[in-house]
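Morning. Coffee machine broken again, so started the prediction first thing and wrote up yesterday's gels while waiting. Chain of 387 residues, entered below exactly as on the submission form.
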Amino acid sequence: MTKLEYLNNSSGVARIYTWKKLGSNHITDSTAVYNQDMIYLVEVPNSSLNNYLLYCKQEYLSYQNGPIDWLAGTLFDNDYGEITFGNNIVSPYFAVLLTSNEYESIDQESEWFIRGYESFIPYETLNDNGSVIISDADYRRCLVCLGSPFVKEDELEYTREEITELAIKPALEEYFHWLPPLMVTEVEVMTDGQEVDMPSEAYNCVGLSLQQYGGSVSGNILSPLFYGMEQALYGGFNYTNLSGTYYSSAAPKTTQTTLNNVLSSHASAQAIINYTRRVHYEGPYKRHDGSQFVRVYSNTIGSYNIWWAKKSLDFNDVKYEDRRYVFDYIEANIKELFGYLRRQAQSDVPGRIDYNKWVEEANSKRESIQEIYRQIVKGSGILRGSL
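Came back before lunch.
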């Protein structure tokens, strides 16, 4: 999640807090430099964007690109905060955070506003799933290869933050690349193909299944499905036509006389259902506002179960049976990290550890663990995760 996305999804009050903390910058007719990631309040009285709170997406320098004509600026799309300076071309430099009405509706003199503003830290809640979550106990276990707990953390060449970023994070990224945590959303089947938004915590769609049930969609029975279903359930041709309308009130029965014939008849009927059923998805695709979706289609009545691969750097999302592999991968990364550093200070002292071996062992261990991940995925039958 970028800062722009964070601001667009946070409350208007938080946006005002952020703007004030960043220096309450203003835009006038004479403004020449617009800094990326800064927030500005437009103060051009005759502009339709006057008193709009804007976010600068890209740096803009008037002496290089020419001055901005704020009198020509208009709101193009309020939902996405898009503005244009003519010809309906969306500006790549600015996005609206608050319109003038939204900005003026906030009582900035109230006690609760001032009290909240004084303790507010811009972007403190920004979370792009880029922060590793690992307990102290699991972190200490990762340092066993360096002599922990006898060797204290403050005696190491790297800080906890650096070890987490350079050794633990890559190991989690590698694991979740092959075996991401999964989440499921359920969506009703429509008569035509439909777009389904990808959840914000997901990064890919890994599967689509269908929970099938009878009935009609928009009053139209899907005849290929019902033709096969009625054969499977009733074993005969109790139809007046093949439109899918069933007129007989007879109880479920079969015209077959032996168990083998019954099973054979039902297997043939299921084959008809399988042959005529069409369920698939395409994507994910990205919209111009950055959101993603998949297109799903089915000629069968029911509801979709859509399986999403979820973004995560949380060590708790690692399956219990796979934790040993992740620990080994982290150990390999740590040994390589410290091996590269410590071999720079090697001497001829007898008995000194050969840190070149640490680097060699790290590469070998990572390759063996990656092969294990491949075999796990291959065994599941589904690439990058198992349903």
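The first strand starts at residue 25 and ends at 27. Going to sketch it on the whiteboard this afternoon.
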